[in-house]
């Protein structure tokens, strides 16, 4: 597993930050971001895919009232792909029984989807080798988050109560020493770097670190390892043509 | 009418100033004075919550004013999560255990 990985540094892999507004569609945006990134990695072709198609055509019919990433993938499989964002644009609201999937040409599709192991080292390895994946976390600490690496305990952020899906785009280590009072009071201890995950949120670029945030890597912070899911795009190959930039 | 010392008096005004800047930054307006007062109260609560999180966090995160600082925890949960609690993952069959060892 490479020591660092940041798919944002690769050209045309990660799309710009989305804003779900008052529509609880994080699940659809995370799934579309995952498929778009994998399509770019495997086909060297940038596509902008329709989130609205997932909201209108979701098999559970809940649209902006919530859903899960696996529902999004099943919808893509059932509809044999996704239309483009240009043809089927995001509205920020949805009405049941208004699926227009058959009206527009499919511009990308998936073969399958899979859930990864809950081992954070294995997740890092898969991320570096194959591309960004989706994760579902407890979003409790994100309402007041501005920047930096969140390191929580199960007491401050319950890892079993996961309620927000985002795209995992990389990982690294913060070189500064830990900033807790305890660490500072023990000045003889060597300064340790903080391992972190880099996650893409869908709450606009005004939030967090230009729309991104970082979680501590190594203690299942906020339940990040509970549902690591990804689509499978393209044929099963040993190694995709692009590797993750350090 | 207050028993507070003189230097404590400006605090509410400072909060209102901070809230005014928040409203400008994130383009927020409220329909009536009652709603404004409610949102101001929620904003103050969230700033206090952010301060507490700052003390509790074990990493390097900074907490404070965000675009969601005028929302209650419940409103934030309803608007920005996926709401429904996952019951099970699709295609994950339940494991049927036999009462006798050796039988699948």
Gist?
The complex is a heterodimer of chains A (246) and B (104). Chain A is α+β, with helices and mostly antiparallel strands and 246 residues long. Chain A has 5 helices and 9 strands.
What can you tell me about this protein's structure?
Chain A contains 5 helices and 9 strands. By secondary structure, chain A is an alpha+beta fold. Chain B has 3 helices and 1 strand. Residues about 90-104 of chain B have low confidence and may be disordered. The interface of A and B includes residues 66 and 153 of A. Strand 4 of chain A pairs antiparallel with strand 1 of chain B, so a sheet runs across the interface.
Morphology of chain B: globular
Q: How many whole angstroms does the radius of gyration of chain A measure? A: 18 Å
Taking all residues together, what is the mean pLDDT of chain B? 78
> What is the chain-wise order of helices and strands of chain B?
HHEH
What is the N-to-C succession of helices and strands of chain A? EHHHEHEEEEHEEE
The chain pair forming the largest interface, with residue counts per chain, is: A-B, 48 and 34 residues
Query: How many beta-strand runs of chain A?
Result: 9
Structural class of chain A: alpha+beta
> What is the mean predicted local confidence, pLDDT of chain A?
91
Kindly provide the radius of gyration of chain B, computed on alpha-carbon positions and rounded to a whole number of angstroms: 23 Å
Can you tell me the residue ranges of chain A where pLDDT is under 50 for at least 5 consecutive residues?
A: 178-188
**Share in β-strands of chain A:** 15-25%
Number of helices of chain B: 3
Q: Count the strands of chain B?
A: 1
pLDDT under 50 segments of chain B (min length 5)? Answer: 91-104
List the defining traits of the structure above.
heterodimer; A: 246 residues; alpha+beta; 5 helices; 9 strands; globular; B: mainly alpha; 3 helices; 45% helix; disordered C terminus
């Amino acid at each position: 597993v490479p020591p660092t990985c940041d798919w944002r540094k690769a050209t045309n892999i990660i799309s710009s930050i989305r804003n779900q507004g008052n529509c609880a569609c994080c699940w659809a945006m995370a799934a579309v971001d995952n498929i778009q990134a994998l399509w770019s990695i495997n086909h060297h072709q940038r596509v902008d895919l329709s989130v609205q198609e997932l909201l209108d055509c979701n098999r559970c019919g809940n649209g902006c009232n919530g859903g899960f990433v696996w529902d999004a993938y099943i919808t893509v499989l059932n509809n044999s792909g996704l239309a483009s964002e240009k043809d089927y644009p995001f509205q920020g609201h949805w009405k049941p029984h208004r699926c227009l999937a058959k009206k527009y040409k499919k511009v990308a599709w998936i073969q399958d989807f899979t859930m990864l192991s809950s081992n954070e080292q294995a997740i890092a390895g898969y991320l570096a080798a194959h591309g960004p994946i989706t994760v579902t976390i407890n979003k409790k600490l994100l309402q007041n988050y501005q920047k930096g690496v969140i390191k929580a305990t199960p007491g401050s952020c319950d890892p079993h109560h996961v309620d927000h899906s985002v795209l995992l785009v990389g990982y690294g280590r913060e070189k500064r020493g830990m900033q807790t009072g305890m660490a500072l009071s023990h000045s003889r201890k060597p300064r340790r770097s903080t391992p972190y995950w880099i996650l893409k949120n869908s709450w606009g670029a005004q939030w967090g670190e230009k729309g991104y945030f970082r979680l501590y890597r190594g203690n299942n912070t906020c339940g990040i390892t509970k549902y690591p899911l990804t689509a499978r795009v393209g044929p099963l190959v040993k190694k995709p043509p692009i590797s993750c930039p350090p | 009418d207050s028993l507070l010392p003189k230097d404590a008096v400006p605090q509410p005004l400072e909060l209102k100033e901070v809230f005014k800047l928040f409203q400008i930054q994130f383009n927020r307006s409220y329909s009536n004075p009652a709603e404004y007062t409610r949102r101001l109260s929620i904003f103050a609560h969230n700033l206090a919550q952010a301060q507490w999180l700052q003390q509790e966090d074990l990493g390097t995160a900074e907490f404070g004013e965000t675009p969601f600082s005028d929302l209650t925890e419940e409103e934030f949960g309803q608007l920005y999560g996926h709401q429904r609690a996952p019951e099970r993952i699709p295609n994950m069959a339940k494991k049927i255990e036999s009462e006798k060892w050796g039988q699948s």
